[in-house]
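Q: Please design a sequence for this.
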């Protein structure tokens, strides 16, 4: 019979080589045997051999065991990858303690959120999965406080998959307007239509089939739906979970790298509680959102503080600073025998004692957004029948802000004259001949998208009643102000309209660049300048009318 040992290196089985792709059949679990080999942890200056032997003596379920030969292969993989066991959960007792502490905290402290109430109360599995799906998509890159009202309106408007599938893209964009990352709403509707038209109205039941069958559903969303709606023990890794895991296991390497990403997913899968997978995943995300925050984490309120390597590192640094012989404190540290541990921060990024646990995870070097400029015009019929009307045109069905409505615009030109000419031509393409003398520059709006920083040069043009207006094509509309605010327009367009409303053009006979700064944005003069201004200002007669009396 093949001898069996506890699975000390199980999560590394998913890596055939340091850069191999993740497999789907890896088991997860831990133990620390006496042969810790090339990536050992130390406790101060002492080896942790005795501690490892204690852990190896614990009883571990059959599902967490592997043949001895397989364990040796996994140990070789750890050695090849130059990874210390310090960053791993080494036995089932440690994993159990993490689960118990986190879930107990979640049961006491979890926020009351509409998608959680719906997931807990909904008995129909497809409606429950749909409710979770909508919330998870909305919460991507968006704060909870912002999502709550959008989610409530969405579920009231389309309570089932069939309701969403029968909606128009315009209706979806209109409800999503202002939430950002607009492709999310389109993917949701596309997925709902596939479920209704091709899957008989039934959501896939596993993370693997959710990711494979539903467009726009990635590994994280699939795992969240499967665990929360269907009770599958599928781990999830989002930004909050990355932060929690990197701190709990002191992972300082770049979490975006393939090796670190694989390890984080492996840890998440190992930790998820098979009895309460949905609650566990939500608890891990809740911990990252409310306690283990990017800056100023509330470590004293953390339910897994005793298992947190980052917290232990802070304690070690504090003890080392207070003792004459640094390094003698009885706290574990990463100490691989050879080479640099690939889960540790690189030597070029030393420990910053002012950050504490916020040294983890490693901060991403963000690529600056691409800068673009465009000229945009708010064209208004102030005396139109039924009230003033604004011209909006629809963007193409693909690309940035696909399908949303906006004011007519063109790419910015090197000179204002060329810019006005191009913009006037664009307007005439929609509504016919226009008076060029009334195109007025009003200011600028800068709006940042995920990868683009776009500057809008805002113009305004008010038509009088004598200006003939042609019949508009299908992708252009005249809207009232009320209709504009309710339409599927982006936040950037609302910013543009605020500039127009603040400096609405009159009957200016020439196009000239206006001052974009208002009184509230003007730089306050220095005290010396104020004295000089007062000295040079001519005296005002006592009987001169004030501004207030003139206004009356």
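A: Design:
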């Amino acid at each position: 019979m093949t001898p069996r040992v506890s699975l000390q290196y199980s999560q590394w089985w998913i890596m055939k080589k340091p850069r191999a792709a993740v497999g789907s059949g890896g088991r997860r679990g831990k133990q620390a045997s006496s042969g810790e080999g090339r990536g050992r942890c130390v406790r101060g200056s002492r080896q942790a051999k005795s501690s490892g032997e204690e852990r190896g003596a614990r009883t571990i379920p059959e599902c967490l065991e592997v043949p001895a030969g397989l364990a040796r292969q996994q140990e070789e993989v750890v050695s090849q990858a130059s990874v210390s066991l310090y960053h791993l959960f080494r036995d089932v007792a440690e994993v159990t303690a993490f689960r118990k502490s986190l879930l107990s905290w979640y049961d006491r402290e979890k926020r009351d959120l509409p998608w959680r109430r719906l997931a807990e109360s909904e008995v129909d599995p497809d409606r429950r999965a749909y409710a979770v799906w909508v919330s998870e998509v909305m919460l991507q890159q968006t704060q909870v406080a912002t999502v709550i009202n959008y989610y409530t309106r969405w579920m009231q408007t389309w309570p089932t998959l069939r309701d969403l599938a029968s909606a128009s893209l315009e209706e979806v964009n209109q409800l999503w307007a202002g939430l950002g990352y607009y492709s999310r709403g389109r993917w949701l509707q596309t997925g709902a239509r596939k479920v209704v038209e091709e899957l008989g109205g039934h959501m896939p039941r596993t993370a693997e089939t959710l990711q494979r069958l539903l467009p726009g559903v990635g590994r994280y969303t699939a795992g969240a739906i499967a665990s929360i709606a269907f009770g599958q023990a599928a781990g999830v890794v989002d930004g909050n979970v990355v932060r929690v895991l990197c701190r709990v296991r002191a992972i300082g390497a770049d979490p975006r790298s393939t090796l670190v990403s694989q390890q984080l997913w492996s840890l998440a899968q190992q930790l998820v509680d098979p009895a309460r997978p949905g609650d566990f995943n939500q608890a891990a995300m809740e911990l990252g959102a409310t306690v283990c925050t990017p800056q100023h984490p509330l470590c004293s309120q953390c339910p897994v503080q005793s298992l947190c390597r980052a917290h232990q590192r802070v304690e070690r640094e504090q003890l080392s600073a207070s003792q004459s012989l640094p390094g003698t404190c009885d706290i574990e540290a990463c100490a691989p025998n050879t080479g640099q541990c690939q889960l540790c921060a690189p030597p070029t990024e030393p420990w910053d004692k002012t950050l504490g646990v916020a040294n983890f995870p490693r901060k991403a070097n963000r690529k600056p957004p691409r800068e673009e400029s465009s000229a945009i015009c708010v064209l208004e019929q102030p005396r139109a029948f039924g009230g003033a009307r604004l011209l909006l045109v629809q963007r193409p069905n693909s690309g940035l802000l696909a399908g949303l409505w906006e004011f007519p615009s063109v790419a910015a030109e090197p000179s204002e004259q060329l810019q006005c000419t191009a913009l006037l031509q664009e307007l005439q393409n929609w509504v016919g001949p226009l008076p060029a003398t009334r195109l007025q520059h009003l200011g600028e709006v800068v709006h940042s998208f995920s990868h683009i920083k776009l500057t809008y040069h805002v113009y305004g043009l008010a038509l009088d009643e004598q200006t003939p207006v042609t019949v508009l094509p299908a992708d252009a509309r005249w809207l009232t102000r009320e209709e504009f605010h309710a339409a599927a327009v982006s936040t950037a367009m609302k910013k543009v309209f605020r500039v127009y409303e603040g400096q609405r053009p009159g009957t200016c006979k020439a196009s000239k660049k206006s001052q974009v700064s208002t009184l509230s944005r003007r730089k306050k003069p220095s005290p010396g300048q104020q004295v000089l201004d007062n000295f040079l200002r001519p005296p005002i007669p006592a009987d001169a009318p004030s501004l207030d009396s003139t206004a009356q």
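Q: Thanks. Anything notable?
A: The radius of gyration is 31 Å. The first strand starts at residue 4 and ends at 6.
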